[in-house]
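RECORD TYPE: inverse folding
INPUT: structure tokens
STRUCTURE:
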């Protein structure tokens, strides 16, 4: 193809005087289109300038080429010359092209001059110009003017209706868009696939599943379900409404899957927590005719990170390099995230520095990587660099750094971040509110945490859950229970994390019966299957109450593989209650799972010491020494003059 173009290009450019004199305007216009279509806009302009005569099609073709290349200044320069040519008429097609250009560069002021010209020439009522004006003004947020233009249009077709609906959605007026779609359905105008795809986006943004399903029914009745474009939009709607099974079923049964379909299947599986299935879908895609793009690779690299498949991730990284996609931001950001999650922070940092144009997502990803590795100081330093680079921290950035403050219990830095949140006007964002509540609670300022919660204007289950967990962890069990009981009155349903908080509250308060009531209602009323963490809360509740037989029985009937965490909870309870025989039996079981578990060796030695079985305690410590098992030293941190320093137990040496 490249050879054909390189052969054709000089043939088009080098026209002999005899050839050019015999060419008609139609032939010139054909060559002009060929040059623009193959990407030789400069040559097209040279040919245009050499034409002995030009008609409306010549001018329109070159203006269209400049608009397509986003060279708006040249497009308008040509328009300025064209409009004063006595034998030429600027028609509705040229005006709609220029209005499209103004929409692309978000310059409605420039578009107003075109609008004025259209009114002057009588083209403003043209269907094409009217639809282009409608699209431009609504996308610029000038909704009232958009409505006025729409109402004044003498004829409305599917293009004008779709332009109005699309403009409303672009400005975040999704409810108005749905109402407009309903009016369109009542009119005689028939929806096309593009209309359906756009209105499904509004349903997705509104989380309006019932509305989306009604539109799905219309799509099937009108036969648009066979369109991959519409099917992909349907799947996206079901995804955003958390009906992942519907999305996968829809996509998997498509006759032909394009790259968007495959990418949506992969991302849907990831959202369902089925990373293995996502990876299998990627392998099936590679065997099909579809070619993975940057978004596909970004998704499947994320799946590798979740599955901790280092080798697989590195292979995908190599594929990306071979395909020349390494500079794509979605891909680069996914690779940074993958290496961070796999504990290879140096590799993540290398990729980060190789990106020529980093966006805020790149910065958020590397900040998250540092925070996950416990590098709090570096995370704070990166936040400073974000601002030096002229970027504005997003909700995600601030939420991550606030989590660092929570984990390190550094209130002063947390308060400074709170001030930054206020200056950016992000205090009502649920993500930020949750992070602030968590930070103040973890730093011991439970009253400040409640102030943030009380100031929230929107009811959000994550915010309520964070406050319930904050109360539970600080021993305010009754306050946590009161908040939990109010959930239904504000229209919220508890999620699995909410139940972890309320079960923790019951455990700390010794409310066994209430804890079991909540545990049972979780599956009975909310249809939430208890996870390993929920069972862990119940076992902790029984252990704190000294009901060790019941705790051991619950561990044995858990529908999950028994790990050392739940057994360790019971072992600590044996230590507190002086149950040596049970403690020894459980310790032996834990050591089968993890022979080098220092905590288990120490806990059993402590059990023996409590019962004055000094010989057994000494034997346990000798066993630790012979195995080379050592206890990880505890670390503490202090802040002196805004500098956080960390210290190991029994050491005055700062940690590197």
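DESIGNED SEQUENCE:
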């Amino acid at each position: 193809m490249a050879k054909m173009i390189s052969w054709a290009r000089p043939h088009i450019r080098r026209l002999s005087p005899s050839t050019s004199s015999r060419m008609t305007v139609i032939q010139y216009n054909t060559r002009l289109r060929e040059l623009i279509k193959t990407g030789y806009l400069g040559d097209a302009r040279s040919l245009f300038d050499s034409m002995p005569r030009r008609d409306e099609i010549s001018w329109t073709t070159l203006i269209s080429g400049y608009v397509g290349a986003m060279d708006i200044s040249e497009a308008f320069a040509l328009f300025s010359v064209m409009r004063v040519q006595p034998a030429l008429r600027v028609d509705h097609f040229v005006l709609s092209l220029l209005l499209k250009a103004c929409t692309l560069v978000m310059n409605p002021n420039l578009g107003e001059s075109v609008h004025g010209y259209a009114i002057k020439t009588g083209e403003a009522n043209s269907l094409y110009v009217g639809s282009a004006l409608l699209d431009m003004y609504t996308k610029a947020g000038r909704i009232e003017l958009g409505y006025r233009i729409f109402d004044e249009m003498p004829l409305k077709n599917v293009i004008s209706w779709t332009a109005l609906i699309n403009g409303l959605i672009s400005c975040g007026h999704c409810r108005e868009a749905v109402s407009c779609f309903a009016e369109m359905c009542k009119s005689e105008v028939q929806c096309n696939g593009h209309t359906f795809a756009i209105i499904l986006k509004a349903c997705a943004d509104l989380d309006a599943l019932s509305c989306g399903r009604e539109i799905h029914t219309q799509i099937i009745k009108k036969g648009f379900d066979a369109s991959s474009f519409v099917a992909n939009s349907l799947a996206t709607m079901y995804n955003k409404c958390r009906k992942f099974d519907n999305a996968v079923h829809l996509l998997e049964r498509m006759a032909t899957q394009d790259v968007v379909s495959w990418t949506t299947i992969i991302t849907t599986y990831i959202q369902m927590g089925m990373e293995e299935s996502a990876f299998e879908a990627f392998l099936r895609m590679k065997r099909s005719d579809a070619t993975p793009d940057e978004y596909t690779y970004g998704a499947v690299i994320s799946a590798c990170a979740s599955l901790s498949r280092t080798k697989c991730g590195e292979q995908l990284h190599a594929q990306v390099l071979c395909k020349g996609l390494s500079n794509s931001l979605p891909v680069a950001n996914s690779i940074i995230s993958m290496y961070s999650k796999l504990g290879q922070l140096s590799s993540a940092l290398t990729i980060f520095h190789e990106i020529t144009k980093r966006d805020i997502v790149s910065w958020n990803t590397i900040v998250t990587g540092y925070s996950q590795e416990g590098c709090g100081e570096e995370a704070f330093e990166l936040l400073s660099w974000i601002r030096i680079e002229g970027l504005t921290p997003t909700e995600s950035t601030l939420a991550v750094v606030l989590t660092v403050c929570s984990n390190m219990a550094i209130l002063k830095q947390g308060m400074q971040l709170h001030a930054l949140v206020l200056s950016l006007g992000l205090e009502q964002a649920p993500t930020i509110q949750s992070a602030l509540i968590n930070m103040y609670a973890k730093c011991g300022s439970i009253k400040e945490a409640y102030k943030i919660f009380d100031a929230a204007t929107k009811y959000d289950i994550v915010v309520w859950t964070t406050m319930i967990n904050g109360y539970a962890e600080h021993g305010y069990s009754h306050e946590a229970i009161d908040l939990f009981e109010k959930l239904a009155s504000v229209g919220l349903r508890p999620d699995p994390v909410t139940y972890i908080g309320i079960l923790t509250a019951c455990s700390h308060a010794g409310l066994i019966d209430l804890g079991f009531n909540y545990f049972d209602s979780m599956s009975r009323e909310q249809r939430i299957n208890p996870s390993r963490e929920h069972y862990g809360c119940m076992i902790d509740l029984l252990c704190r109450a000294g009901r060790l037989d019941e705790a051991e029985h619950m561990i044995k009937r858990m529908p999950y593989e028994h790990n050392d965490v739940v057994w360790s909870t019971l072992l600590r309870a044996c230590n507190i209650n002086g149950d040596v025989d049970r403690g020894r039996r459980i310790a032996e079981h834990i050591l089968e799972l993890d022979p080098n578990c220092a905590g288990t060796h120490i806990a059993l030695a402590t059990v023996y010491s409590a019962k004055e079985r000094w010989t057994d305690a000494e034997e346990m410590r000798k066993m630790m020494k012979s195995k080379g098992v050592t206890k990880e030293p505890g670390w503490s941190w202090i802040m002196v003059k805004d500098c956080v320093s960390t210290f190991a137990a029994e050491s005055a040496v700062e940690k590197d």
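NOTES: Residues 108-121 form the longest helix (14 residues).
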